[in-house]
């Protein structure tokens, strides 16, 4: 029965809606679905061949029905594919807006997967398809260009007003030297600082720093 | 209902019984008969997205290619059970998207009674769902059984009711702290 791999994709999409992270891209299912469309297209061409371009649906209702079925299956597969991808790109865009560095995180998990002796089948590979990675890259560029128009307001900043001007942070990853109003600080792993919240907000979002309350 | 709506797509994947009105060459695969033809009068369970369009399309001289029937989830047996007591029926076992399926079927058939039964069912069950969602023990104890019988829409409702009660509680707690 056609349309089943498409349905599986949509079920994956449904599950993704409730997850905080993005599960691995279903390359196999996407390929199976597109292959189905190609097979159906071949079938349609084969059915139409003897008519040589002069097909009249009302004189051949049975053939018309077969053609319609094939056409509907293709349309269904298209809808499933589009919905699956749209679902994922929506999620990626949301991640871009909330300041999660998707690509960075991908590389990290890929590295960890290799060091950990490739635990699990998908442990070492990225959960994005190459096209999705390109999409994220370009979308982030677009977002950065859009935000660049207003230098005095951070569109992706936190909407909650801060309770304290200064906060304690602990450094989780080496982030090098940053410049603040009070001079430069070098962020080395496992050190602790008392800094202005505005200066380090982005670094907290990106996962370099952890806020201590 | 949008084109990209995942729930709409899953609703359309639910099966409805169809009867073919003419013999179609090469469509045997719908019956699990890979190379054969679809015989006139054979009954097949087709997904709604296929059955609906085949039933609606009419070639110029004949009647429709396929006639649709009510899916088993909306059979008179189920509707009678819903009329008797909406609270005890296991809607999820009938169809995962029970109400959406009902709405799609009602677009195709004229059934005044089904509309009443479905909306009464939803109203009665919504009250029970809200009750269970606000009751902290509801989701664990005797309520767990009831939760398993909810269709996808009702689960959304339960989640919304549960989360909103929780957010109001945290908001109140935040207010009293200040």
Overview of this structure, please?
The complex is a heterodimer of chains A (213) and B (178). Chain A has 213 residues and is mostly helical. Chain A has six helices and five strands, in the order αααααββββαβ. The N and C termini of chain A lie far apart (57 Å). The radius of gyration of chain A is 25 Å and the shape is elongated. In chain A, the strands form two sheets. A three-stranded antiparallel β-sheet of chain A has the order 4-1-5, with helices on one face. Chain A has a two-stranded antiparallel ribbon with strand order 2-3. Chain A folds into two domains: 4-143, Methane Monooxygenase Hydroxylase, Chain G, domain 1 (Up-down Bundle), CATH 1.20.58; 166-212. Mean pLDDT of chain A is 82; it is low at 115-124. With 178 residues, chain B is mostly helical. Chain B folds into two domains: 1-69, Methane Monooxygenase Hydroxylase, Chain G, domain 1 (Up-down Bundle); 71-178, Methane Monooxygenase Hydroxylase, Chain G, domain 1, CATH 1.20.58.2050. Helix content of chain B is 53%, strand content 8%. Chain B has a three-stranded antiparallel β-sheet with strand order 2-1-3. In chain B, helix 6 (112-134) runs parallel beside helix 8. The longest helix of chain B is centred in the C-terminal third of the chain and has 26 residues, at 152-177. Chain B is elongated. The N and C termini of chain B lie far apart (43 Å). In chain B, 29% of the residues are buried. Chains A and B meet through helix 1 and helix 3 of A and helix 1 and helix 2 of B.
Secondary structure layout plus pairing:
The complex is a heterodimer of chains A (213) and B (178).
Chain A: H1 4-17, H2 27-48, H3 61-97, H4 102-115, H5 130-147, E1 166-171, E2 176-180, E3 183-187, E4 192-196, H6 197-205, E5 209-212
Chain B: H1 6-12, E1 15-20, E2 43-47, H2 48-56, E3 66-68, H3 76-84, H4 91-94, H5 98-108, H6 112-134, H7 143-147, H8 152-177
Antiparallel strand pairs in B: 1-2, 1-3
Helix pairs in contact in B: 6-8
């Amino acid at each position: 029965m056609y349309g089943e791999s498409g349905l599986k994709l949509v079920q994956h999409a449904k599950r993704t809606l409730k997850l905080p992270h993005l599960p691995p891209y279903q390359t196999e299912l996407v390929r199976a679905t597109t292959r189905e469309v190609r097979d159906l297209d071949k079938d349609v061409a084969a059915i139409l061949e003897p008519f040589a371009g002069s097909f009249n649906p009302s004189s051949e209702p049975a053939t018309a029905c077969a053609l319609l079925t094939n056409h509907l299956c293709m349309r269904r597969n298209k809808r499933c594919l589009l919905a699956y991808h749209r679902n994922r790109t929506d999620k990626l865009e949301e991640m871009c807006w909330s300041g999660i560095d998707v690509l960075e995180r991908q590389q990290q998990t890929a590295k960890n997967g290799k060091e950990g002796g490739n635990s699990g089948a998908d442990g070492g590979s990225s959960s994005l398809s190459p096209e999705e990675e390109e999409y994220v890259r370009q979308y982030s560029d677009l977002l950065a260009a859009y935000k660049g128009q207003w230098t005095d307001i951070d569109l992706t900043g936190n909407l909650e007003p801060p309770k304290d001007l200064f906060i304690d942070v602990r450094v989780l990853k080496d982030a090098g030297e940053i410049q603040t109003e009070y001079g430069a600080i070098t962020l080395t792993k496992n050190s602790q600082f008392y800094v202005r919240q505005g200066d380090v907000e982005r670094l907290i979002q990106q996962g370099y720093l952890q806020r201590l309350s | 209902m949008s084109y990209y709506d995942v729930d709409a797509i899953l609703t359309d994947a639910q099966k409805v019984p169809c009867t073919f009105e003419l013999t179609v060459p090469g469509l045997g695969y719908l019956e699990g008969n890979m190379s054969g033809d679809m015989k006139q009068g054979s009954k097949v369970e087709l997904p709604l997205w296929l059955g609906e369009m085949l039933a609606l399309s009419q070639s110029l001289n004949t009647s429709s290619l396929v006639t649709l029937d009510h899916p088993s989830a909306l059979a008179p047996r189920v509707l009678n059970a819903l009329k008797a007591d909406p609270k005890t029926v296991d809607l999820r076992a009938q169809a995962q998207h029970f109400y959406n399926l009902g709405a799609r079927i009602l677009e195709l058939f004229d059934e005044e009674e089904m509309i009443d039964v479905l909306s009464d069912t939803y109203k009665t069950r919504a009250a029970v769902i809200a009750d269970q969602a606000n009751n902290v023990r509801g989701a664990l104890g005797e309520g767990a059984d009831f939760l398993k019988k909810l269709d996808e829409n009702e689960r959304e409702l339960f989640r919304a009711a549960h989360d909103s009660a929780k957010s109001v509680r945290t908001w109140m707690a935040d207010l009293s702290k200040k």
